[in-house]
Amino acid sequence: MHGGGSPRQAGQYGRPRGRVSGGDAVAQRAENAEAPRIPNLLRRIGSLFAPHRRDLSITVVLVFISAALSVLPPLLVQRAFDEGLFPPGGNPNLPRLATLVGLMIGIYLGSQLLGVWQTWLTATVGNSVMGALRVRLFTHLQAMELSFFTKTKTGIIQSRLQNDVGGVASVLTNTISSLLGNVVTVIAALVAMLLLNWQLAIVAVILMPALVIAQRRVGQVRARIASRTQESLSDMTAITQETLSVSGILLSKSFTRQQAEIGRYSDENDNQVRLQVSQQMSGQWFFAMVSIFLSSIPAIVYLVAGLLMVNGTTDVTPGTIVAFTTVQSRLLFPLLGLMRVALDLQTSSALFARIFQYLDLTPAISDAPTAGDVPAAGEATGRVEFDAVTFAYPDATADSRPTLDAVSFRIEPGGFAAFVGPSGAGKTTVSYLIPRFYEASAGRVLFSGVDVRDLKQESLVSHIGIVSQETYLFHATIAENLRYAKPDASDAELEAAARSASIHDTIASFPEGYATVVGERGYRLSGGEKQRIAIARVLLKDPEVLILDEATSALDSISERIVQTALDTASRGRTTIAIAHRLSTIVSADVIFVVDGGRVVESGTHAELLAANGVYARLYAEQVTAPSPSRLLPAE
Fold it and tell me: What are the recorded GO MF terms, alphabetically (predicted)?
């Protein structure tokens, strides 16, 4: 077995967005500024959390209680020293000390239990909102028209679903709880320090701003290095995707470029190593300063307390000093955390804005309120008709000619019609308009006698089967790929469809049979095998109308004959519409429509069109006289 590949759809709807890794504040603010402006954004964000009001209220209360409890132990430490260890009487007061120690342990235990509860609540709410939002966005994207996906990179859509939606979970689990907790902790710590001794509070706080400024400067340096590190990681990921995919590895082996690719990866890896070392070392001096500062403040407090006691200007006790230094040590990091909160809130708003931008997209094609199902079996069942249909793609300029211009034709139930013509004439566009993947700009497309705009899309498409040149198979078993058309199909139904598509014997020859995994995009199968599995999948659907969009144009002559036999079987008893490049595959069609410049310029049987000596006759003559692939090879 061998494989093949196809180019991915190009185009772009927007650049991928998401939280900048490494905390590069400058880059993150620039990206946030580019976020779309969404009216009533805060109200819409709030509506997402509305079903979780009770849990959110409990979370807020727990944050306040936990932050307030965090400053009680130092106050109890003061009491333990002054009333338990060193009471005025001289000897330790063990009952009093035991009581205070018990209270401290109880507070520690309670704080941790509240913390676990708070974490569970925030994680549950945050991830529930994230999950619901992701499904909502995925559902909305499923309803978007085909043109949206032809002009939008797959990576952009994945970024919305993964990076942006994933990032909003931190709004609750990190940002909000961090904001509330740090604010309450800072306020409570400052109040406790002032209650213990206002002179020592001034000494401890006066140096804090300098440390915060230093932290910000060092953080910016680390952020720039982190940004370059992420860019390097992205480059390494791109190299991996390009060279280790099936298509990439085939290309590198075909041109013996493995060593060159190894060198390219190795160079980027060396760059990554240097950046990682720089990132880890860039903050070491700062953290050394922080360590020195935090270690020095208690010593300075001891010195100032001693001076105050010598001068008789304060009644500082040993318990006050110990309690004070304990509170002071808990003040710095909440202050640093508050510096990041504003940016995190802005980033979260930007993520929500980008998500709502997609949710606010209106599908260009949707069911009318009065739309109904395709009529039950009747005289017109399977009839396809175009009535003066004109169509231009959404991104076409106003002065360009339409892709289809006043096209009219009728294909009777059970008939076999083919559309041929030069490349770009509009043949494939016809196949897009029948299942209403695009909307006609003017005129009517009728299916089973009803305007497709009056039919429900799901009902319409359920009556149509499509086999295209680019066969898409999932990285799953053959059976799973076939059951995509009919999830409840029995093994007997799978085998019957495969036999009709002339692929059963091939599948049976595989060691795993229908349990054979086809590989990414079916690379473990040949082009002809993939096409016949696609035909079998359509046969399981059992549609009334079969559309073949150049289903054999990419195959060699042997595979084409096998697949063509399968297509002939599949088309029996169905209205069949073939978009053909190789005219030899449609010579037996009931009617052939020749499309040129967006118009149907000729129609008739193969013999009639040859006799007319028009566009079809010219195209047929070009293919008949064109050199075969064997003639293009040099003579031995």
Answer: ABC-type oligopeptide transporter activity; ATP binding; ATP hydrolysis activity
The pLDDT assigned to 207 comes to 65
What burial class does residue 358 get, using C-beta atoms within 10 Å of its C-beta: 0-12 exposed, 13-18 middle, 19+ buried? buried
Q: At what angle do helices 198-206 and 177-196 cross, to 10 degrees?
A: 130
Could you tell me whether strands 545-549 and 599-604 are parallel, antiparallel, or unpaired per DSSP bridges? unpaired
Question: What pLDDT is stored for residue 451 in this prediction?
Answer: 94
Same fold, 35-197+351-362 and 198-315: yes
The per-residue pLDDT for 218 is: 63
**Mutual orientation of helices 25-33 and 208-244 as an angle, nearest 10°?**
70
- To which residue do tokens 């390494």 refer? 236
- Integer Cα distance of 625 and 399 in angstroms: 38
In the prediction, which pLDDT does 515 show? 93
CB under 8 Å to 177, separation ≥6 — which residues? 59, 63, 118, 122
Q: Which residues of the chain are modeled with pLDDT < 50?
A: 1-23, 628-636
Pick the closest to residue 293 from 193, 210, 199 (CA basis). Answer: 210
Q: Domain 384-473+523-625 is in which class?
A: alpha beta
User: DSSP letter at 395?
Assistant: T
CA 353 – CA 402 distance, rounded (Å)? 36
**What is the fold, at CATH topology level, of the domain defined by 35-197+351-362?**
ABC transporter transmembrane region fold (1.20.1560)
Q: What is the DSSP string of 297-351?
A: HHHHHHHHHHHHHHHT-----HHHHHHHHHHHTTTHHHHHHHHHHHHHHHHHHHH
Nearest to 308 by CA among 317, 295, 299: 317
Nearest to 330 by CA among 108, 74, 76, 119: 74
